[in-house]
């Protein structure tokens, strides 16, 4: 029986190493995507709570409240555009539309918008977090 040429074990070892690296990279990528998804979910909920906190003291400043609502909607829309998770994208777009739909033109509409955001913010956060689950 003749010994195997040296080249064959080297090629086999190279192929095995390539297979292990490819498998490892795939698993690392999956973990990375999971971390990104979790981070986006946390950011979405934080945008809603941040928007609520910003508008609460603005009841007497309708223009500033309108701007804060639009800023929150824009941030959620940007997050939705970057979201890898389709369900999170849809939920963030829906909440952004709700925020954009609040028109604050005077003191009365500011009070109404403030009450609506305070009431609906819990529902919005639940929608966003359930989209991540």
From TrEMBL:
For this protein, the record's PROSITE patterns field holds: PROKAR_LIPOPROTEIN (PS51257)
Tell whether Signal is among the UniProt keywords: yes
Q: Which residues form the signal peptide?
A: 1-17
Q: Which UniProt keywords apply?
A: Signal
What is the protein name for this chain? Secreted protein
């Amino acid at each position: 029986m003749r010994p195997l040429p040296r080249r064959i074990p080297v090629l086999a070892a190279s192929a095995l190493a390539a297979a292990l690296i490819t498998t490892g990279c795939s698993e690392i990528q999956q973990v990375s995507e999971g971390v990104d998804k979790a981070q986006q979910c946390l950011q979405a909920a934080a945008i809603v709570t941040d928007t609520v906190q910003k508008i609460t003291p603005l009841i007497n400043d309708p223009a500033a409240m309108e701007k804060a609502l639009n800023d929150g909607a824009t941030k959620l829309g940007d997050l939705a555009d970057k979201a890898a998770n389709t369900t999170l994208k849809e939920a963030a777009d829906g909440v952004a539309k709700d925020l954009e739909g609040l028109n604050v033109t005077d003191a009365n509409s500011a009070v109404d918008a403030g009450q609506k955001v305070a009431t609906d913010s819990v529902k919005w956060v639940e929608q966003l977090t359930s989209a991540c689950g």
